[in-house]
Design a protein that fits this description.
Layout (H helix, E strand, L loop, with lengths): L14 H18 L1 H22 L5 H12 L23 H5 L3 E9 L4 E5 L5 H4 L9 E5 L6 H10 L5 E10 L2 E7 L5
Parallel strand pairs: 3-5
Antiparallel strand pairs: 1-2, 1-4, 2-3, 4-5
Helix pairs in contact: 2-3
Length: 189
């Protein structure tokens, strides 16, 4: 009634014993192929650093694409739509994805014109790498989203914003050479 008795001479399968055998086998294989394991981890680390540098736009896309493609041996993993500089000097430099995701960029106000604000983009940089890198010159034409800039508005902006003041601008759209943005300014009381 309680169940069938175990047959004599047979023992139940030991499931705990199977797991250590797999772990031991993997460990032994890794020890036997140590050079391969080290090379794979080195290649993955280099690819990770290249992708990180590419994501903050510190290296040229052709270099990162070539190296990462060779290292990973994967065709088409990296696209060629990224530009060579980390500093945006015209609206055409800014990837469409940045505008689609409404990315916030930092910049320094150059001047206020009848067309909008001229802002010099300040890219995200690593101090070690940025010290030897020559940045291109240029300013972005930023129009305030939903604002028709009149002469009175221009005077008011000139009173509120100072030349060389650091501002943040959130990308909303692009038309010809102008960017439509929200302007974010830290006001010190």
């Amino acid at each position: 009634m309680a169940g069938r008795p175990a047959a004599a001479g047979t023992s139940p399968p030991d499931r705990d014993r199977a797991a250590p055998n797999v772990v031991a086998w993997i460990s032994q294989w890794a020890d036997d192929h140590l050079r391969l394991v080290r090379n794979i981890s080195t290649v993955m680390a280099i690819a990770g650093v290249m992708l990180l540098l590419r994501s903050v736009r510190l290296i040229m896309p052709s270099v990162s694409q070539k190296c990462c493609t060779e290292l990973l041996a994967v065709e088409g993993l990296l696209d060629s739509s990224h530009h060579e500089t980390s500093k945006f000097t015209s609206s055409s430099d800014i990837p469409v994805e940045f505008i689609r995701r409404n990315v916030k960029l930092r910049g320094r106000l150059r001047r206020i014109t009848e067309n909008g604000l001229e802002i010099e983009h300040i890219p995200i940089t690593l101090p070690i790498l940025s010290s030897w890198r020559k940045e291109p010159c240029g300013a972005l034409l930023v129009k305030l989203a939903g604002v028709e800039l009149t002469e009175t508005g221009k005077v008011w902006l000139q009173k509120e914003l100072k030349p060389s003041q650091v501002v943040w601008f959130q990308l909303l759209g692009k038309e010809n050479s102008a960017l439509f943005c929200y302007l974010l300014v830290n006001k010190k009381n």
